[in-house]
């Protein structure tokens, strides 16, 4: 069983601590939080072992789970990697591309495994449909959230849109060709609402919208490909797969048939997969344990996290033009 320590015991850090403590694939050795008052409170309330330094926690563990503010991801990851320990880093992987590239380079140099916490890859509605998303040519995403002061220190692209950027990059097997984007600051110093158009070399186009000043929450993605439409609701964890095939010569009474201007008839049918309930955060942490134990590639690699950050910053750069 892998010994794991958690860096950061804030809101998300406490969730990670609870899940790692109940996991059958990890032994939770404890945590470190620079806020001594918060660390004492968490240790007292939940009984987790509190470490007084990052170095002490790293020395006691095989794996370190970094759930600190983004600004400290790079510093923490470098210390963990140089100690030869595997590292899980909450998204985004780092604050800058340069920091992400250094994390990636060091991980390769020290031969350690790393995974980035892009949790939507483990959303049951997405995992149920991913195999059916074969060659999408148009993608539309909406990630809308009600205003929450937490996270407004960074643009909405890094706060929310990066989830959809990572998902899109995982299903479109082509390089990014062009990016066009606009963003508006409404209540924060950084953009609160943004729209981006990503064009890929294979012709696929993705249109992404993210807002943290919406009146309602929404996390929906739609994938359009030859003879199929796939909808994924990441919030309600439901999905819909609508497919088309050549219509039978003698349609049944309840068959849904479409006929285009050329007279070609297609039958519409639903191929909705079962969505199995899960805890996506626990799944991402445990699949990382499997990757370490079996010496396989993590589901969301450090390369994946770096590329999602790279595209996110290209979108942000468009705001300045």
UniProtKB/TrEMBL annotation:
InterPro entries: Gfo/Idh/MocA-like_OxRdtase_N, Gfo/Idh/MocA_Oxidoreductases, GFO_IDH_MocA-like_dom, NAD(P)-bd_dom_sf. Residues 156-216 form the GFO/IDH/MocA-like oxidoreductase domain. Residues 2-118 form the Gfo/Idh/MocA-like oxidoreductase N-terminal domain. GO terms for molecular function: nucleotide binding. Pfam families: GFO_IDH_MocA, GFO_IDH_MocA_C3. PANTHER family: BILIVERDIN REDUCTASE A. This is Oxidoreductase. It comes from Flavobacterium rivuli WB 3.3-2 = DSM 21788.
């Amino acid at each position: 069983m892998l010994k794991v320590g958690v860096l950061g015991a804030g809101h998300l850090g406490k969730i990670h601590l609870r899940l790692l403590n109940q996991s059958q694939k990890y032994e939770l050795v404890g945590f470190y939080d620079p806020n001594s008052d918060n660390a004492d409170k968490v240790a007292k309330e939940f009984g987790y072992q509190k470490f007084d330094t990052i170095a002490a926690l790293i020395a006691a563990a095989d794996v370190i789970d970094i759930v600190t503010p983004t600004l400290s991801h790079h510093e923490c990851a470098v210390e963990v990697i140089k100690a030869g320990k595997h590292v899980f880093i909450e998204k985004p992987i780092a604050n800058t591309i340069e920091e992400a590239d250094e994390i990636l380079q060091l991980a390769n140099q020290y031969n350690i495994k790393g995974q980035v916490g892009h949790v939507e890859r483990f959303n049951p509605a997405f995992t149920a449909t991913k195999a059916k998303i074969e060659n999408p040519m148009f993608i539309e995403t909406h990630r809308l959230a009600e205003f929450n002061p937490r996270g407004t220190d960074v643009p909405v692209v890094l706060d929310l849109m990066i989830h959809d950027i990572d998902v899109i990059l995982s299903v479109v097997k082509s390089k990014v060709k062009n990016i066009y984007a606009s963003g508006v600051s409404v209540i924060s110093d950084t953009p609160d609402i943004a729209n981006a158009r990503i064009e890929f070399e294979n012709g696929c186009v993705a249109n992404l919208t993210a807002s943290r000043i919406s009146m309602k929450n929404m996390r929906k993605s739609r994938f359009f490909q030859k003879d199929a439409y796939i909808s994924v609701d990441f919030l309600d964890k439901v999905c819909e797969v609508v497919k088309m095939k050549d219509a039978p010569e003698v349609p049944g009474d309840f068959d849904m048939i479409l006929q285009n201007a050329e007279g070609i008839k297609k039958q519409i049918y639903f191929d909705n997969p079962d969505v199995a309930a899960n805890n996506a955060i626990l799944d991402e942490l445990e699949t990382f344990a499997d990757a370490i134990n079996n010496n396989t590639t993590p589901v969301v690699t450090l390369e994946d996290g770096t590329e999602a950050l790279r595209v996110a910053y290209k979108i942000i750069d468009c705001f300045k033009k």
